[in-house]
Amino acid sequence: MASDLLGIGTSGVMAQQRLLQTTSNNIVNVNSQGYVRERTLVYTNSVGLGTGDMVTQRVINNYAQGEMRRDTSAYHASGTRYDQLFQMDSLLGDTSNSVGTTITSYFKAFHTANESPAEIGGRKTTLSELNGMVNRYQTLSAQFDKQSDTINSTISDETDRVNSLLNSINDLNQAIIRTNGSPEENLMLFDQRDEAVRQLSEKMDIRTVTQPNGSMLVNMSTGHSLVLDGGVAQFKMVAGDPDSRDSTLQLTLGSNKAKVNDQDLGGGLGGLFSARRDLEPSKRELGQLAAAMADAMNQQNRLGMDLDNEIGGDLFTLEASKGLPYGSNTGSGAASVSFVPGKGREVTTFDYEVQFNSATGYEVFSIDGSGNRTSLMTGTTPPAKVGVAGHGIEIDLSGTPAAGDKILLQPTKHAAAGLKAAITRPEDIALASPLKADKNSQNIGSGEIKMTGVYNTGTGSGFGTNSLAPGAPQVVKIDNSGNYEVYAADGTTLIGVAPASSKGQNLMAALESPLGGPKVYADPKATPGYDFSITGKVEAKDSFNLSYNKNGFADNANGLTLAELQNKELVRKNNNAATSNDKMTFNDAYSALVTGVGNKTSQAKTLLQANEAKLTQSTGIYESVSGVNLEEEAANLIRFQQSYAASAQIVNTAKTIFDTLLSSVR
């Protein structure tokens, strides 16, 4: 009997000791990262009395764990995307960085200069604001580049971390297989592996399968194998082709290589790629705004006269953008793209691609923000320059391309960075009209002449070098029938007659030769490049004169038009809409850019909050099973201590009985 009691008590002591060890281990690891609560199962002795086998195991719900991993990936994907967008949204929302603020200040300076157009002070302020606006465009473009470079650098770092985690999981798999006979060590290895898998789920969306031998297979959500029996895949960051900044990931497993679709990644890595995609359109919108604004200001300044009595020139310059050849090209073809003067309102945010189907045959495609390609034009034996109708760009082709070669063109991506001031002197701002109109002081009638507009001072116009050409319309005489006879500078060379029925409105458009015959000018805005009207009652023999506005520095007609450009809708709103009726102002265009980033940031924040709530829920469910509950463990500790003491008392009782038996036989 004593021996039976001793065996029972001893097995009880050992069992309670094992239970106390498990409980104590749970308590001390309550804050250990990745620790899974353990429990020891004690079975009755299959032969005789007392306790038998004891098994310590991890308490885990595989479904809850898998759900938590998926929610972890979603949370980090949305969190990483939000963090990157928030940085740019904050930058754009800061008035000290706002292009919109400088646009407003720039046009305000024009209004001030127009109050005293002959004075240099207002012009200096305008030039200063012009330079400040250029600097703001360049700075903001550089910030977009910096953000993109930061994202790419982070992608590279995260890729290295992913590879390290994959190797760790593979090593732990091998260790688990090798130590199959040591349960305690196995449990620690399982915890370490699960923690590595959890950290991996922060980086990307994964799926796992546990094998009968204890090893774990890890796959991407798309099914690509990452960790498998006897092998582990590795990611590599690859420079984009042809745009090196548009980097991608390549997955290598043994000798097999595959390009990874970044939209399938999930996790923090997927969030980084998503943020990079989100910011790309904004940079092109900034470039589109810079191109449209620079072109509008240049064209209008060319229609005025500066303080040197010269026809105005460009206020801004925009650098041509070099094309990016694809790595697979075999020919020496090259291309660059520039904006066509006077076509700024047609500029889109598209990228473009020139594809050569032979050494002389080419096709031009537009590429939208989603990568969709649309054929725009085809041709053979390409000329040096190819204009793309309706898009405001011109492509300069050179070299000898081979069939199949392709070149990517990104006209607006770097346009803001390439924007520069074309003038350094305030005198070069053309505030005055280049024309002045006067009536003859001897006129009998009350007619007044006024300029309708100046539209062209360059090729085909009636302007010479800082003057009106002698043969351009400059004199108007009223004949006996009330018709408007228009003469060249000599007053005797008749150019044409506008009928009295025109009532003196837009005489260049109404001009006929002979009277009742065809129009003299098919497009007066091109030739002679200006128009004017005579209002009021005219009498026979009345005459009016046009002349170059030499020394007319007090005039601000062109300055007023320059200032009014702020309120004109000159920026294309919809890439795919007709260019004539889908426009916005400069300030509206910048506001749309800021709003676009703001909306994406707001959406990312909402998604982050939803994913955070889901992760909190799934983590709570997982922790309720696998986490350490100190109250429960404290209760177990007391219970097992009492059981240990009771089992020890059994051993003590057995010893007493045994000693009594020995004494009785002496």
From TrEMBL:
Primary localization: other
GO aspect biological process, one term: bacterial-type flagellum assembly
Which SUPFAM superfamilies did the record assign?
Phase 1 flagellin
Q: Which GO terms describe its molecular function?
A: structural molecule activity
Q: Where is this protein localized, as stated in its record?
A: Bacterial flagellum; Secreted
Domain Flagellar basal-body/hook protein C-terminal residues, every copy: 624-663
Output a single Gene Ontology CC term carried by this record: bacterial-type flagellum hook
Q: Does the keyword ATP-binding apply?
A: no
List, alphabetically, the Pfam families matched.
Flg_bbr_C, FlgK_D1
**Protein keywords:** Bacterial flagellum, Cell projection, Cilium, Flagellum, Secreted
Positions of the Flagellar hook-associated protein FlgK helical domain? 87-316
The record's similarity note reads: Belongs to the flagella basal body rod proteins family.
PANTHER family (UniProt xref): FLAGELLAR HOOK-ASSOCIATED PROTEIN 1 (PTHR30033)
Q: What is this protein called?
A: Flagellar hook-associated protein 1
Question: Which lineage?
Answer: Bacteria, Pseudomonadati, Pseudomonadota, Gammaproteobacteria, Aeromonadales
